[in-house]
Amino acid sequence: MKKFILKSVLYIFLILILLEIIVRVCHLYGEDPPRYIDEYGVEKRVPDNDGYAVTGNRKMNYSKFHINKAGFNSFREFTPSIDKYEMALIGDSFIEGFHQDFSNSIGKQIEDQTHGIEVYEYGYAGYDFANQIYLVHAYKNDFQYIDQIVLYLKYENDLERDIYKPNTDRIKLLSSTIFKIRNNIKLLSYGTKIGILSPIKNLVKRGMAFNNSTEGYQTNELKGSKAEELKVDQKRIANFKKLIEVYGFDKNKTSLLLDSRTTSERFLEFCRSNNIRYIDFSTSFKNSKKPTTLIYDHHWNAHGRSIIAKVLAHDLKEQQK
Amino acid sequence: MLFNSLDFLIFLPMVFVLYWFVFKKSLKIQNLLVIFASYVFYGWWDWRFLILIFLSTVLDFLVGQQIFKNQDNNKKAKYWLWVSVAFNLGLLGFFKYFNFFVDSFIESLNALGYNMKSVWTLRIILPIGISFYTFQTMSYSFDIYYKKLKPTTNFVSFAAFVAFFPQLVAGPIERASNLLSQINTRRIFKYEQATSGLKLILWGFFKKLVIADSLAPIVDDIFTNYADYPASTLILGVSLFSFQVYGDFSGYTDIAIGTAKLFGVELMSNFKFPNFSRNIAEYWQRWHVSLSTWFRHYLYIPMGGSRVSKLKSLRNISVIFLVSGLWHGANWTFVFWGGIHALLYIPVFLMGRNRVYADNVIAEKTWLPSITEVFQVLLTFFLVTFSRIFFRSPTLSSSFEFIGQIKNNFSYEPYMHPMGYRMFDFYLLIALFTIYEYLIRRDERNPFKFSSPIVRFLLYALVVMSILLFYDDGVNRSFIYFQF
Fold first, then answer.
1. What is the pLDDT of residue A270?
2. Burial zone of B52 (CB within 10 Å; 0-12 exposed, 13-18 middle, 19+ buried)
3. CATH of segment(s) A35-168+241-320
4. Closest Cα of chain A to B448: distance in Å?
5. Does residue B172 have a cis peptide bond before it, meaning omega lies within 30 degrees of 0?
6. Predicted TM-score (pTM) above 0.95
7. Is the ipTM, as predicted for this complex, more than 0.85?
8. Catalytic residue among B288, B328, B341, B417
């Protein structure tokens, strides 16, 4: 019995070591460049980081990223000046674009389709509208030179708060020992990503939920009803108003990039009546014969991103006329 | 509790430690632990149905003693045997077949012009594993009746035999002469047996998680949307289903046999590389062996087997296959599937070739099979796979539509995976799996039979790596044979 237990433990250990080597050599794990909050209170990536983002068990999507000196994934450095024509594209993981090689990003494609324009991609996974508008506010010295600002708004989850507060908890969590261990043991990082460790996470969650059994109780009286929709829209519009009031919003050079299929008509009407420009990419996506999102992920695929680039390039040309 | 769940990964070491370290001094207490663990294992799914297992246990325990007591009075012994059969088949009949028979009766009346509506159909949950444990307990009563076994007087041992958790919900369907005798004997921990158990568990997980679960979304997609696909895709779908169902069921069996070995118990083999069968008879000697053996011992032979006139033998074969089909599920598709196998088996039987491959494997003394063997294997695989259209389709009409679609849309188009994955990965996986199974074809109980420890270690690592590479978080992880 002793031999059986010792040998089993030894075999498991050796197998894990070998798997760690395979995962590292084949680069099956995805990298998540470290995050931090800078002196302006803006959450972003630690500058000057290169690596590879991976999606799927068998590297179904594999792309290189480059975090520039400003702390964002981009093929160029951000050097706004009065002499050039610049566009800032701000948004969450969709704009950050770890799903495509950084050298072929949306910004690069826009530059290739236009003349004399520099595109600065301020994408960061987890940004909502408050993050985005605060970024413009915090870096106003840079943004005063930028000629066009496009904010990517996902209406269904980007307008849930009316004030910006940096997410210090997340930064703390990501720099905690558990996450450090996870990031250093690539097999663990890979296992988490493919979901094989989800049962363990769920078990822990189940245990915690059992201890706090009253948590999570909520009324569903209004859920899905017209009254609820109205309430949600009113809240989101109020948040939007408050955010642009607090942090400012230059209507002459700022536009929202959105999908009208997932955006409330009330909000669109609010934008129209308040002269807030928006660029709607829904028609281009609807008319696409090829899928626009990754199948094993909800982010835009290479085709979807090229459509976005085309829509924005077209809009820029129209603006410059 | 599913073998491939975190719950089981916690449960198994706990029971193992209690079994060998805490309760090893007394056989009775060790068997009580087996009963308790088995009831927890089963009750994890639905504790209410434990009562059925318990009732079946009590009844067959008492019936066994009555049959033995009346050995000299065949009429009385037979009466007690019928009590066991009626009770167990009654359970099966009610929980599994009640709605099927009521609906079929109403449908046939409607076909004859009597307009009737079913008011008898009940909402019945099928208790997991009922087809397996009822057959196992019946085998005990049969063996006593046929004087092949003496009944046990130890209720604890008998209850542990009925509920032994590694094989409780999907077999192998054990005969008391094999399993009960081991449960009645003091088990000794053997290093070789335990390591061989772990190897089988690993191989079983590979078959389930890598082969069966990764093919499931493809097969589901093709069988759900068969009307939209060309023949090439439909043929691909049913061929992959052959691998899926094999990986799923034989994977379960390997985990079951491996788990039993960890507790010092040897279960019978259930799968012996059926994909390398050279005719249908050999296929049935290699596929779900415990069920085929059960039917042979307790139905085919009592009906006269092959020692009666040719006509009666053919009748016996047909009955066996039709009943075996119905055993799988309360649906005419399964009866039809059984019927096809009967039709495929009968010519082999009439040519006297039903036992020619019983004691040997493909390429018995050579590295590579002969061209004839390759042709035989391919033909058998094709026939078995064709019959699986009925096994997998939800209704008879959809089975025929599936076949009609192959005939009417006989064209080729490359198939795209429903999740967008590279199909090449799956083709490569199946090819490598088949080659590996060919290499180990002589011993189904030792999937890593290589003399070099380095090769064995690399294979273990490769198998675990494959599980990671093909693990799909979104797949329903239940086993196909649980529904039977």
1. 94
2. middle
3. 3.40.50.1110
4. 14
5. yes
6. no
7. no
8. B328
